[in-house]
Structures are given as structure tokens and as C-alpha cells.
Amino acid sequence: MDAATVRRWLDASAAVLHDQRDYLTQLDAAIGDADHGTNMDRGFASVVTKLSDTEDSTPPGRLLVTAGSTLVSTVGGASGPLWGTALRRAGKAIGDAEEFDGAALAAAFEAALDGVVELGAAHLGDKTMVDALEPAVGALREGVDGGTPTAEALAAAVAAAETGMHATVALQAKKGRASYLGERSIGHQDPGATSTVLILRALQDAVAAS
């Protein structure tokens, strides 16, 4: 995997978030501010624009740091700072290497998860993006450490994220605006967990094309 992989991932993420913008907004309307789809669409579109101005020789880690900084500066609500932090932490974990392997990818996502948890103070079961991201990171690490090819480890990570996403339906929100609803937040799928699955699927496709 290299800079081209990262560019494909972020391009694909922007495309799917644009396509699913109304769906994400619909999910958020039930338990939030009804702006998640719009915010994610605008943020990742800005990332694509920003990266189009970067040199082709920019290493993958620096691309991720730039993408994260762009999200922080262009996206309102919680999603911009959270995904911005995640991508910046992931980029810093990869460093200036021109290429990275599955183990480095797993370490990057562990750093991303740590950043999200640190910033959002959310944990598994709180009905947030962490409910999709944490199982995915765990599955990715398990696969890589077990010698599974990166593409297969990512497939397991996406499956784990999807399971976590679906599990948010039965949860009561403990963080963010949704937490104000108390028990009324039960029965709704978390939009942050949903967009996380979309982004991870985009990564799986980007790696498969490497």
C-alpha cells in the first residue's frame, strides 16, 4: 500500500458519503441535528479538493495528516474533529514511509481509535462511531497478527464494523445530542457508526485495487 492507495480510499470515501448523504441525514434527524450527512459530504469533498493540490510524491502518512486537518477546518459538529483527529493520528503513525504493510495499517487504525476515544470520551456501547470502529480495529489487528493477507483482514474488519453498526439500534445513546433523548434514542441506528462502515468499505476497495 502507498500514497495511491490512500488517495483511492479518500476519493472513494468522498463518493460514497456523497451518495449516502441523504440517508445519513435521515438517520441523524431521528436522534441528532440532521446534519451528519451534509457535514461528512462537505468535509470529504474538501479533502479530495485539498489533496488534488498536493504533490504526487507526498507520502501516504502526510496525505492522511493533511486530510485530517482539512476535516477539522471544514466540518462542523462532532464528525469533523473526530474523523480529523483519526486521520491525523493514523497519518502520524505511518510517518514518512513511502509504503506501508498490514501491520502498519493496523497500528495506524489503533492510533486513530485512540484519538477518537480521547477526544470524544466515548466507549463501546455508547452508541457512537466507536461501536463500529473499535470492533473493526480489533479484527484488523487479529487478522494481521495471525498472518491473514491484508485484504482478507480488512474484509473481517468491515464485517465486524457492520455488526457493531447494527448493534447500535438497540443501544441507548450516552454521548452527544442523541444522549439527550434518553430511552427514546433506542431503536435508531447511529449515523456515526454508519458513516464509519461506509469509510471502511471504501478502504477495503482501495486496498483490493492496490
Q: Quick gist of this model?
A:
This protein has 210 residues and is mostly helical. The protein has helices spanning 3-19, 21-31, 36-52, 60-74, 79-94, 102-120, 130-145, 150-167, 191-208.
Q: What can you see in these coordinates?
A:
The chain has helices at about 5-20, 20-30, 35-50, 60-75, 80-95, 100-120, 130-145, 150-165, 190-210. The chain is mostly helical and about 210 residues long. The protein is about 70% helix and about 0% strand. It is built from 9 helices and no strands. The chain has a single domain, classed as Serine Threonine Protein Phosphatase 5, Tetratricopeptide repeat (Alpha Horseshoe).
Continuous helix count = 9
Give the CATH level 1 class: Mainly Alpha
Using the alpha-carbon principal axes, give the shape: globular
* Helical content class: over 70%
**How much beta, percentage-wise?**
under 5%
The helix-and-strand class reads mainly alpha
What is the domain total for the residues?
1
Number of strands: 0
CATH architecture: Alpha Horseshoe
Instruction: Calculate the mean pLDDT score and round it.
Output: 93
Helix and strand string, N-terminal first?
HHHHHHHHH
From the N-terminal CA to the C-terminal CA, the straight-line distance is 6 Å
- Uncertain residue ranges: none
Oligomer state equals: single chain
Radius of gyration: 16 Å
CATH superfamily: DhaL domain
- CATH T-level fold name: Serine Threonine Protein Phosphatase 5, Tetratricopeptide repeat
| Biggest β-sheet strands, sense, barrel | none
